Amino acid sequence: MTSDIIKKQVHVCHVTIRWGDMDALRHVNNTVYFRFMEQARIEWLDHVGFVREPDGCGPVVVNAHCSFNKQMTYPGQVEVRTLVGPPGRSSFETYHEMRLLDADGQPGEQVYAAGGAKIVWVDFTKQKSVPLPQQVLGWLEQ
Fold it and tell me: Which helix (H) or strand (E) holds 107?
């Protein structure tokens, strides 16, 4: 994550590590971290009241990234913190920090993985980006 960008935390969720999330080396497979970030993004959008309209406008991930700092294994609970950066004309960046929860359900200091995605608001019918609606700008400022 770039440190010079101002980020604002907008959501926190917990995800359970499943046995099937591990690979042959007995740690969470790298693809699963992207699922954790996806789950966090979807929960945040649900929380703010986003309504999916396949023939309308909505978010599209155009770029995603993740840095893996420390292995996670089954069993476990992951806290995924979602942060957002300043909006552009038709896009904004999401950032995610993933920490393991301890036995008391509290997150540790160690960031096991950090990543994010660039979200572009798209008119699905025209297949073109559109300016972020006022409602979305409000979500980014909450």
Answer: none
Asked if pLDDT for residue 3 goes beyond 80, the answer is no
Domain 8-141: which CATH number of 3.10.129.10, 3.40.50.2300, 3.40.50.720, 3.20.20.450: 3.10.129.10
3-state helix, strand, coil in the chain (%, to 5): 20, 40, 40
Residue 67 half-sphere exposure, CB side, CA atoms within 13 Å?
Answer: 8
Asked, as a colleague might, if the bond just before 75 is cis with ω within 30 of 0, I would say: yes
Cβ contact 96:35 at 8 Å: no
pTM tops 0.90, yes or no: yes
pLDDT digit string (tens) for 64-79?
999 999 999 999 999 9
Tokens encoding 32:
């699963």
Q: In which residue are the tokens 């960046």 written?
A: 93
- Token pair 């770029």 is found at 63
- Measured distance CA(3)–CA(24) in Å, rounded: 34
**Buried residues in 38-48 as b, exposed as e (16+ CB within 10 A):** ebbbebbbeee
